C-alpha cells in the first residue's frame, strides 16, 4: 500500500501504522488498516488518520505498546501513540441489537475480521488492508468505489434501523465523492427517515455542517429535500430547506459551491432563502449551532441586510443605482462599529459571492474597494478611542451615567468615519459640541 496525499505525512503515517501492524503480528495477533483510510487510499485522496482493527483485546494492545490511551475501552478501542502519529486500535467486534436507533446495546469481542467488517455501514467503509498490501473486501467495496456507488453492507433496512444517522452519512458520502446511492439503499433511507427523530440534533448538525462545508453542498441540499429527511429530525427543520424547493433549478444549481468556509456557506444559504437575521437565528438554534457559530453567521447576515437596505435608500434618494465612494466608505465605517472589522472583512467574501454567483451588482463597489475602505477605518471599538469615559466625564464635570455610553458611541461613529481625528483633544472638543447640541 502507498498512501497518496502529502508525501511527508503519508510516508511517515504509513510507516508508523505498519509498525503497529508488525508488532501486533509478531505477538501472534491479526491486525489490519480498516475503514476510511482504505477507502481514501484507493481513491488517491489525502488521509487524515489511519484506523486499525485487530484480534488483540484492549489490555493486550496496551501491554504491547509503551504509550497508549484508553479512549474507548467499552467498545474495544485503545489509542496507540507512536513517534509522530496516533492510531486508534480497535478489537474485532460484533454488536447486538441497537438502543434508540443509534448505539449498540452490547458489544462482543470476536476473532473474525469478516464479522467485524459486516457491522459497518457502507461497503466502501468495510474493507481492510494487511501489512503486505493485500486487500480484504468481502462485501464488494472496491467494485462499488469503481462504480461510484454508495451501498449498505447487507440489508440497508437493518443498517439504518441500527443507527439512523447512517442515512445522513450516506448522503454526505455520496456528495463528498460524487457517487450515486444504490437503489435499495436509497429506498431504505426514504422508508426509515422517521427514525431520525431519535438522533440528537448535535449529531445531525455535525453531519449537515460537513455537507455544507464539503465538495457538493448544493447537491447535498437537493438530496436532503428529495429524501425529506429534515422533516423527521428531532427538531424538524422545514426552513430554510423547504423554501429551497420553491427555487427554480437554475437558481439552486451549484451556487453554494462558489463560496468557501462553513460560516460563509451557511450565511450564503440564508441569503438564497431571503432570510432575515432573526429567522436565521431560529433555524440555527434548532440546528444546535454553537453560540459562536450562530453569532458569526448572524453578524454576517446583519451586515448584509444593513448594507442592502442602506444602498437601496441612497439609490432612491439619489435616483441612481450606484453608491458613490464617500457613501460606501461611511457604510463600511458604520458596519465596523456595529459588528467589528473582522466580520466586515469576512462579509466582503459574501458580497463577492453575491456579485459573482448571483449577479447582484449592488455589492460591486464593496468588492472592488472594500479592503481599501476597511483599512481607512481607524477605530471600531470604544476601547480604541484615544480617550476614556472617565476623562470625558471629568472634562464635562459630570457624573458617569447612561449618557456617557451614548456619548462615547457617538464619538466612535464620528471617529470611524474620520469626521473627527482619534486624538484626545479633538475628541474632547467634539464631546462638548455634542453635549451642547443635545442641550439645545
UniProtKB/TrEMBL annotation:
Q: Where is the tRNA nucleotidyltransferase/poly(A) polymerase RNA and SrmB- binding domain?
A: 178-232
Which InterPro entries does the record cross-reference, listed alphabetically? Bact_CCA-adding_enz_type3_sf (IPR050264), CCA-adding_enz_C (IPR032810), NT_sf (IPR043519), PolA_pol_head_dom (IPR002646), PolyA_RNA-bd (IPR032828)
Q: Which GO terms describe its biological process?
A: tRNA processing
Record-annotated Poly A polymerase head domain positions:
31-151
Cofactors that this protein relies on = Mg(2+)
Q: Provide the E.C. number(s) assigned to this enzyme.
A: 2.7.7.72
The answer on whether this UniProt entry bears the keyword Metal-binding reads yes
Gene3D superfamilies in alphabetical order: 1.10.246.80, Beta Polymerase, domain 2, cca-adding enzyme, domain 2
Q: What class of enzyme is it?
A: transferase
User: Which Pfam families does the entry link to?
Assistant: PolyA_pol, PolyA_pol_RNAbd, tRNA_NucTran2_2
Query: What are this entry's molecular-function GO terms?
Result: CCA tRNA nucleotidyltransferase activity; metal ion binding; nucleotide binding; tRNA binding
Family to which the UniProt record says this protein belongs: Belongs to the tRNA nucleotidyltransferase/poly(A) polymerase family.
Q: What is this protein called?
A: CCA tRNA nucleotidyltransferase
User: Source species, please?
Assistant: Paenibacillus hemerocallicola
Traced from the root, the source organism's taxonomic lineage reads: Bacteria, Bacillati, Bacillota, Bacilli, Bacillales
Amino acid at each position: 500500500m502507498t498512501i497518496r496525499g502529502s508525501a511527508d505525512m503519508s510516508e511517515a503515517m504509513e510507516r508508523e501504522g505498519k509498525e503497529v501492524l508488525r508488532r501486533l503480528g509478531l505477538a501472534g495477533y491479526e491486525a489490519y488498516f480498516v475503514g476510511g483510510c482504505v477507502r481514501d487510499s484507493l481513491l488517491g485522496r489525502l488521509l487524515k488518520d489511519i484506523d486499525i482493527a485487530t484480534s488483540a483485546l484492549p489490555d493486550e494492545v496496551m501491554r504491547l505498546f509503551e504509550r497508549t490511551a484508553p479512549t474507548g475501552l467499552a467498545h474495544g478501542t485503545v489509542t496507540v501513540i507512536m513517534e509522530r502519529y496516533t492510531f486508534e486500535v480497535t478489537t474485532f467486534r460484533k454488536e447486538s441489537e441497537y438502543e434508540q436507533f443509534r448505539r449498540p446495546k452490547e458489544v462482543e469481542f470476536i476473532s473474525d475480521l469478516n464479522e467485524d467488517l459486516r457491522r459497518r455501514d457502507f461497503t466502501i467503509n468495510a474493507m481492510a488492508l494487511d501489512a503486505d498490501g493485500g486487500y480484504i473486501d468481502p462485501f464488494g467495496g472496491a467494485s462499488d468505489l469503481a462504480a461510484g456507488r454508495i451501498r449498505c453492507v447487507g440489508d440497508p433496512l437493518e443498517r439504518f434501523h441500527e443507527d439512523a444517522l447512517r442515512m445522513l452519512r450516506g448522503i454526505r458520502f455520496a456528495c463528498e465523492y460524487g457517487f450515486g446511492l444504490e437503489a435499495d439503499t436509497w429506498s431504505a433511507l426514504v422508508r426509515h427517515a422517521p427514525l431520525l427523530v431519535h438522533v440528537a440534533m448535535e449529531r445531525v448538525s455535525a453531519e449537515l455542517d460537513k455537507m455544507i462545508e464539503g465538495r457538493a453542498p448544493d447537491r447535498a441540499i437537493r438530496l436532503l429535500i428529495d429524501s425529506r429527511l429534515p422533516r423527521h429530525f428531532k427538531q424538524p427543520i422545514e426552513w430554510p430547506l423547504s423554501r429551497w424547493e420553491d427555487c427554480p433549478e437554475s437558481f439552486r444549481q451549484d451556487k453554494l459551491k462558489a463560496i468557501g468556509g462553513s460560516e460563509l456557506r451557511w450565511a450564503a444559504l440564508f441569503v438564497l432563502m431571503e432570510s432575515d437575521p432573526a429567522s436565521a437565528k431560529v433555524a440555527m438554534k434548532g440546528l444546535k449551532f454553537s453560540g459562536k457559530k450562530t453569532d458569526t453567521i448572524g453578524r454576517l447576515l446583519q451586515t448584509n441586510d444593513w448594507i442592502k437596505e442602506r444602498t437601496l435608500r441612497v439609490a432612491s434618494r439619489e435616483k441612481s443605482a450606484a453608491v458613490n465612494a464617500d457613501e460606501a466608505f461611511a457604510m463600511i465605517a458604520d458596519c465596523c462599529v456595529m459588528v467589528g472589522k473582522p466580520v466586515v472583512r469576512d462579509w466582503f467574501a459574501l458580497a463577492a459571492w453575491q456579485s459573482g454567483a448571483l449577479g447582484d451588482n449592488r455589492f460591486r463597489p464593496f468588492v472592488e474597494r472594500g479592503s481599501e475602505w476597511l483599512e481607512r477605518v481607524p477605530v471600531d471599538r470604544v476601547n480604541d478611542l484615544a480617550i476614556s469615559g472617565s476623562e470625558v466625564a471629568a472634562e464635562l464635570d459630570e457624573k458617569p451615567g447612561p449618557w456617557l455610553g451614548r456619548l462615547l458611541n457617538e464619538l466612535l461613529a464620528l471617529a470611524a468615519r474620520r469626521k473627527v481625528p482619534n486624538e484626545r483633544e479633538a475628541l474632547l472638543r467634539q464631546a462638548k459640541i455634542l453635549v451642547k447640541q443635545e442641550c439645545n
